[in-house]
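Hey, weird one. I pasted the Gamma-glutamyl phosphate reductase sequence into the form twice and got a warning about non-standard characters only the second time. First submission, copied straight from the form history:
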Amino acid sequence: MTDDIKTQALACRDAAQVLAQLSSADKAALLEAMAQGLLDHAPEILEANAKDLDAARAKGVGSAMLDRLTLNSERIAGIAAAVREVAALPDPVGQVTRTDTRPNGIRVSKVRVPLGVIAMIYEARPNVTADAAALCIKAGNGVILRGGSEAIHSNTAIATVLQAALEAANVPAAALTLVTDLRRETMLALLQLSDIVDLAIPRGGEGLIRFVAEHARVPVIKHYKGVCHLFVDDSADLDLALKLLVDGKVSRPSACNALETLLVHRDIADAFLPAAAKALLARGVELRGDEATRILVAEAKPASDEDYAAEFLDLVLAVRVVDGLEPAIAHIRHYGSDHTEVIATGDEAHATAFVAALRAAVVMVNASSRFSDGGELGLGAEIGISTTRLHSYGPMGLEALTVERFVVQGEGQTRVPIAID
């Protein structure tokens, strides 16, 4: 088993070297062909997806998981459109990010090149198979995809279509390798291949990400959870703050960029919290607050220490009244997850201090936490979010799937004089 996954990884590495030599135009054409292939083979993909859904229902899987698993013609069209969007993005490979001529005349450049082989380990969503493949291929990388057992038929059908497009472009299909042996031992073996795999990106629940991070010998992009805060300062426009709160909590509560905790300056709590509670309760949000919150909002339940550390991913919000900017920052430092933090304020000095004091991957001033997304931040698409400081921090787009290397051009310069007889 270990030898088999290593053989697959080696084949992916060899194929990645072919992929890395494609021009930007060739890669764009390849991705266009992949998108069209998904549309052309939609019936086969839907047939495969039906098998996954039948198996999930037989296991009693909940409605949220079923929704993530479900494909239909509209969703397949959306997946194909996402691949086409990646095809249209600027190619980071070959970008020169720095040039300098040294006193001795050598010309030094830093140039973006592909990372190499990326292992993508994910759960549930079949669309990740196409999204991750498109992003990795656009950046010239080979990709090893290890999805969850609940989507194995859907993932296999999608990967087969994408591999056919690779072969039609004279790129070995192994450039996109789908691991179909889903035993944990096989995943563990993959994560030990530090001489072949250049980066692992786990995408799913906190349990999966911690498992990968704890067992890998390859670098891992980690994003355990999103405990995102909104602090409403005493100088904030309260109508603006209310819009940020409702959008951040309600628009998609299951997303990692959804708000989980509201911090309110004590001086405006009387004016803000009753209106905020009314808006949230009307939208089905359960509130859990400290004593000061519960005095102002009778419907709020007592909040525990665990609530302030929780990523609810649901219509539940923890609330705390704080004495000012510094206590808000202290709370976030203690309970935050380095994902996304938001301040609503009319005080520029407070905004500057908030941004400087927190080390979160994304810090927002008077903007919704829901903008913490690669597409919304101008990356075009994202392969994941990093809350570690490896080589990328925050939402990861195409540039994060490359590294910068030095290219040096000279005319025979040497460090010490060399006499040639």
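That's the output from the first submission. The warning seems to come from a hidden character in my clipboard, not from the data itself. The longest strand covers residues 107-114.
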